[in-house]
Write a structure and sequence with these properties.
Layout lengths: L1 H26 L2 H8 L3 H7 L3 H24 L5 H18 L1 H12 L12 H8 L8 H24 L11 H17 L23
Helix pairs in contact: 1-2, 1-4, 1-6, 4-5, 4-6, 5-6, 5-8, 5-9, 7-8
Length: 213
């Protein structure tokens, strides 16, 4: 019985993440989620009484997956700037491959006071690398680099979500292009050549992003 309940909860979470990712919180429908999960409304509300609690569960799962990615990058103990670049690429790869993380990122913006807020899983770490570990030469440079990482991740998230609708999608995976951007940035900041671009942690091709109804 417990295994069946766990499988049902997993199906609901996956269907809900896809719905929230493609339609946002306001546009999402519990009836569409139940159809996608292949269960009844009663079965859904047994686990999640309402849409708000379901969204909170998706946010929590996406946040936890993001924290795990941050830990994997942290243990590499790379220089601070390289760590920021590697984390940016790792986050974008995670957004490409995990719909729950994309949904958590979107819900955090659309639901006031949504907890846990998605960027809290990684932005404080970036700020620490650039400030406390002297990754940036000045506070202004640290703020600019934090903004760059934020903009790159947010822009890639938007592209990933809209990619299926593009008639002429940009060549290459977003994580690969962002890795190249960081390679150029690191070269410019240090004045050194031969920097290795951060490598997306997945070696396979990310599954296609689809907007499931």
């Amino acid at each position: 019985m417990q295994d069946r309940a766990a499988r049902t909860r997993q199906l609901v979470m996956r269907a809900a993440a896809s719905e929230f990712d493609s339609r946002g919180y306001a546009g999402s429908s519990l009836s569409r989620i139940t159809r996608a999960a292949g269960i009844s409304v009663g079965a859904l509300t047994f686990h999640f009484p309402n849409k708000k609690e379901l969204a909170a569960a998706v946010c929590t799962q996406g946040h936890a997956a993001t924290e795990s990615t941050v830990r994997r990058v942290t243990v590499r103990q790379e220089p601070p700037l390289q760590s920021v670049a590697s984390l940016s690429v790792a986050l974008i790869t995670l957004l490409e491959e995990e719909v729950t993380v994309r949904a958590a990122a979107r819900l955090s913006r659309e639901i006031p006071g949504c907890q846990p807020e998605w960027t809290s899983a990684w932005m404080p770490v970036v700020q620490d690398w650039l400030r406390a570990r002297a990754g940036a030469r000045t506070p202004a440079e640290g703020a600019a680099l934090t903004s760059l990482a934020t903009f790159l991740v947010a822009g890639a998230e938007n592209e990933i979500r809209q990619r299926a609708a593009y008639l002429d999608a940009p060549a290459g995976r977003p994580a690969q292009r962002v890795a190249h951007i960081w390679e150029l940035m690191l070269r410019g900041l240090t004045g050194e050549t031969g920097h290795t671009a951060p490598t997306p942690p997945s070696t396979g091709t990310a599954p296609p992003v689809t907007n499931e109804a």
